[in-house]
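Q: Sequence in, structure out?
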Amino acid sequence: MRIKHIKIHNYRSIREIDIECTHFVILLGPNNHGKSNILSALEFAFSTNAKPTEQDFFLYRDPKDAVLWVELTFCDLTEQEKRTFNKYLLSDGSIC
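A: Exactly. Output:
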């Protein structure tokens, strides 16, 4: 199983980002442009006890937009993973 797609909404310095992941992903850019926040959002998504704090929300979001989320889509599942996550399996064989 591997991450195929990452969507992040209102997380720290990220208002909205949509990343299509190939087999290798490199985060490259100047300091203070959100690379670490993408990794932190992944950690948030994988954590079983993560609770967002006020500092985790994008500061300049629309006042009516009070939600923060990280969505991951996985592909290349093994047969065992397909059986385990059968109820979440999408028509293309991925899970989200």
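Strands lie at 2-11, 14-20, 69-75.
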